[in-house]
Amino acid sequence: MPHIALPEGFPGIRSLFMFNPVTAQPLNDLVQTLLHDPSTSTLTPGERELIATYTSSLNQCKYCATTHGAIAKYQLGGDAAVVEAVKIDPQSAEISDKLKALMKIAAKVQQDGRKVSTADVENARSQGATDKEIHDTVLIAAAFCMFNRYVDGLATWAPDDAAVYDAIGKQRASEGYHTKPFKVTSPA
Amino acid sequence: MPHIALPEGFPGIRSLFMFNPVTAQPLNDLVQTLLHDPSTSTLTPGERELIATYTSSLNQCKYCATTHGAIAKYQLGGDAAVVEAVKIDPQSAEISDKLKALMKIAAKVQQDGRKVSTADVENARSQGATDKEIHDTVLIAAAFCMFNRYVDGLATWAPDDAAVYDAIGKQRASEGYHTKPFKVTSPA
Fold first, then answer.
1. pLDDT, mean of residues A103-118
2. I need a surface site. Which of A90, A163, B47, B167 has the fewest CB within 10 A?
3. Which domain covers residue A104, as residue numbers?
4. How many domains does chain B have?
């Protein structure tokens, strides 16, 4: 049960967006530009969703890891296997060497920003990562350290039904984040 | 030295805002509404800046802890002593019992959102905190877990000169966050 009185039937962060619209707007704008808009990064939306999924998985945030895992799957053309592999260990997943190097940076950021070393950054550069891609990786990982804490710090509802996450993932991947909240009619 | 090529003479997050304006906009909007606007919270701007300062201090983010500490000081009418006391231990600082209870929640969020317990929330309520104030506390602490990681994960420049932070603090406290970046003409 959530720590505060939230609208019923809306899981995770959507219930918080309805509770406090004044912060929902910039948070939604952030995730739209950071993860979804094709023109704002040379990392694909699928790669960016994988970084968000991996960070959320490290933070053990069920709602965010499952939701963004489902979005990543749809952004990657339905490849559920790579999403599950990244959650377990990006270094042995079937992703590019550049993305593996960026995932190492994301894992450091998840622990503490100060842990990102010059060697981590040089390693990413040697795999072809640009300054902008290193920047985007750090900000995505940092942003999900916020979103995960916001969702779990207020004990929002995380459904158990995998079909709910899949439906949210399909909608977000195609429509982005400025869509209407996803209402679950019969809370599982 | 920053991990990526950032504009020189602009400390901390401001150099990142100039590097990537597309994410600067929602991040600045977030901090403006979350910390500065008087109408968006029943916590005062000073109390909200203290929560941001304390979280940044727990994350050992020099730039954010010192900057928001200076903003808090100006929002609290120049009370530097209470800011320093909160950084060391909010429970023995001269702040209200309600704010002490909210600081306990912020400290849990800084570690992991899942650590916030029903007892923590009931304790805050017993000291007069509303659902909205509990929400705002969780989001401020969560947001600074992002800002701290963004600033330190890219190794941005944190000046050593206390006068720089004081000048930034004075400006932000009076003008808010939608002001021009603070350029330090001779990097210390």
1. 98
2. A163
3. 41-175
4. 1
Report the pLDDT averaged over residues B162-185: 88
Q: Which residue of B40, B108, B148 is in closest CB contact with A113?
A: B148
Q: Which of B3, B116, B138 sits opposite A118 (nearest CB)?
A: B3
pLDDT, tens digit, 9 for 90 and up, residues A144-170: 999 999 999 999 999 999 999 999 999
pTM of the model: 0.97
d(CA A47, CA A35): 9
The answer to whether the Cβ–Cβ distance between B150 and A4 falls below 8 Å is no
Chain-chain contact of A23 with B30 (C-beta, under 8 angstroms)? yes
**Domain contains A145:** yes
ipTM of the complex: 0.97
Cβ-proximal residues to B163 (8 Å cutoff; 6+ apart), any chain: none
Question: Is A29 part of a structural domain of the chain?
Answer: no
Count of C-beta atoms within a 10 Å radius of residue B148: 29
Q: Residue type for B109, please?
A: V
> What type of residue is A57?
S
- B185's tokens: 């003409």
Q: What is the CA radius of gyration of chain B?
A: 16
In chain B, count of helices (H) and strands (E)? 9, 0
In terms of CA atoms, which chain A residue is nearest residue B21?
A40
Q: Which of A177, A101, A113 has the alpha carbon at shortest distance from A141?
A: A113
Contacts of A23 in chain B (CB under 8 A): 30, 33-34, 40, 139
Report pLDDT for A179. Answer: 76
Burial (CB < 10 A; 0-12, 13-18, 19+), residue B106, is buried
Instruction: CATH number of the domain at B158, please.
Output: 1.20.1290.10
What is the pLDDT averaged over residues B16-45? 97
Domain for residue B88, yes or no? yes
A140 in a domain, yes or no? yes
For residue A121, what is the nearest residue in chain B, using CA coordinates? B3
CA distance A139 to chain B (A): 6
Query: From the CA of B118, how many Å to the nearest CA of chain A?
Result: 7
